[in-house]
Design brief:
With 394 residues, the chain is an alpha/beta fold. The chain contains 14 helices and 13 strands. It has two domains: 12-44 and 301-393, Aspartate Aminotransferase, domain 1 (Alpha-Beta Complex), CATH 3.90.1150.10; 65-296, 3-Layer(aba) Sandwich (Aspartate Aminotransferase, domain 2). 47% of the residues lie in helices and 14% in strands. A seven-stranded mixed sheet has the order 2-10-9-8-7-3-4, sandwiched between helices. Strands 1-12 form a two-stranded parallel sheet. It has helices spanning 12-22, 47-59, 72-83, 99-114, 129-137, 156-163, 188-201, 218-229, 262-279, 286-295, 298-330, 337-340, 352-362, 381-393, and strands spanning 29-30, 92-98, 119-124, 140-145, 147-148, 153-154, 171-175, 204-209, 235-240, 252-258, 345-347, 364-365, 371-373. The chain starts with 11 loop residues before the first helix and ends with a helix. The radius of gyration is 21 Å and the shape is globular. Helix 2 (47-59) runs antiparallel to helix 11, helix 4 (99-114) runs parallel beside helix 5 and helix 13 packs across helix 14 (381-393).
């Protein structure tokens, strides 16, 4: 059975993690792996999560199965967090998933069953798992221009020119905020234009909301998605609690669909639950229960929002400090775009050879497309990173 098996190529980010672990040099800097880190290099358990877990421990009297779609309280809490009162919640179908990746997979599984002829349009570039999952499921995919490397901003004209080719029933996959890997987000006007495009073509927006609260704040980061939801009859959503609640290993996600009416939402919710059954049966509950507990308690919600604010402002401070140091060293505003981006990531603009040089000669680890996790910077490493970048990139 296994004698002819050829192992698949290892994931490049996982490979990079292994390379970093095996590097014995002092002063190495991990800017590759997409997890939040404190200035001490730790990925902490948030105080609000600790408190919620203690409450769950004190009150939970069973580890029995919940529902195939996950706990109804968790689903309701996430609908409120993501959409507030932007749309009637009765139009939202939802199911819990193992992380945001599981949510992306379940949404696309449903699309594969309902409209297998649909093309999924993805930004160039995007999170590598997007095209990987789409390809694995056998769905067609096309790219639309997104990132303008010269300006470090959005290629707005190119994006809309490419998306003019969408057909009825196609999916347009967009990042809700904190675009991975570029850090370049859509403005409200861009979201409105996207909604108008979907209305005129019959395309369906698919929003991947992996970093809610990491950009400018919960309400600000959700504003574009909520605006879009108020415009279109149908929308697909995948959301993650890995980053904003720090629940990486607990795998807390949600797959959602905005439907035309309550009846369609009920049927779609049944489909999502059925897909859960075929894939992994019941979604994980512990992390979801912690999220539900936090969002259901005003004091814990305030504590969580404050912790999230500190994380967000710390990453933005890193951005601004690195941009300022690079400006000081180079005497140029070449890297000023770093301060304008939002979230954990930016593309530094280095070639593959320069990325390798940064790693081999300076111990600075970036993903191979030069994606940089600004949360991996510290006040001590920012001058070192800036000096190395200026030396290698000229």
């Amino acid at each position: 059975m296994f004698e002819t098996l050829t192992a698949p190529q290892p994931d490049k980010i996982i490979q990079l993690m292994q390379m970093f672990r095996e590097d014995t040099r002092d002063g190495k800097v991990d800017l590759g792996v997409g997890v939040y880190k404190t200035p001490e290099g730790k990925t902490p358990v948030m105080k609000a999560v600790k408190a919620a877990e203690e409450l769950v421990w004190q009150t939970q009297d069973s580890k029995g199965y919940v529902a195939l779609a996950g706990d109804a309280g968790y689903l309701a809490a996430m609908k409120g967090l993501l959409f507030a009162d932007a749309v009637p919640h009765a139009r939202l179908a939802a199911a819990g998933t193992p992380g945001g990746t599981g949510a992306v997979r379940q949404v696309l599984e449903m699309v594969k069953r309902l409209t297998p002829e649909a093309t999924v349009w993805i930004s160039a570039p995007t999170w590598p798992n997007h095209p990987a999952i789409i390809s694995y499921l056998g769905l067609a995919t096309r790219e639309y221009r997104y990132y303008d490397a010269d300006s470090g901003g959005l290629d707005r004209a190119g994006m809309m020119e490419d998306l003019a080719g969408v057909q009825k029933g196609d999916l347009i996959l967009v990042h809700g905020c904190c675009h991975n890997p570029t850090g370049v987000d859509l403005t409200l006007d861009d979201w409105r234009a996207l909604g108008e495009l979907c209305l005129s073509t019959g395309a369906i927006p698919f929003v991947d909301m992996a970093y809610l609260g990491f950009g400018q704040g919960i309400e600000e980061d959700a504003a574009g998605m909520r605006l879009l939801a108020g415009m279109v009859p149908e929308m697909l959503i995948a959301a993650s609690c890995s980053k904003n609640f720090g629940l990486y290993r607990d795998r807390v996600g949600i797959a959602m669909a905005l439907c035309g009416d309550e009846k369609a939402a009920a049927a779609t919710g049944g489909m999502l639950a059925w897909l859960n059954r075929q894939n992994f049966a019941f979604p994980p509950d512990h992390g979801a229960r912690a999220v539900q507990t936090i969002l259901g308690d005003a004091g814990l919600t305030d504590l969580w929002r404050e912790e999230l604010r500190e994380m967000r402002e710390g990453m933005q401070a890193n951005r601004e400090a690195l941009a300022a140091e690079l400006q000081r060293i180079t005497g140029s505003d070449r890297f000023a775009f770093l301060a304008a981006h939002r979230g954990m990531f930016s593309l530094l603009g280095a070639s593959l050879e320069q990325v390798e040089q940064l790693r081999e000669e300076h111990g600075i680890y970036l993903v191979f497309d030069s994606r940089m996790n600004v949360a991996g910077l510290t006040p001590e490493t920012i001058p070192l990173v800036a000096k190395a970048v200026a030396e290698v990139m000229g």
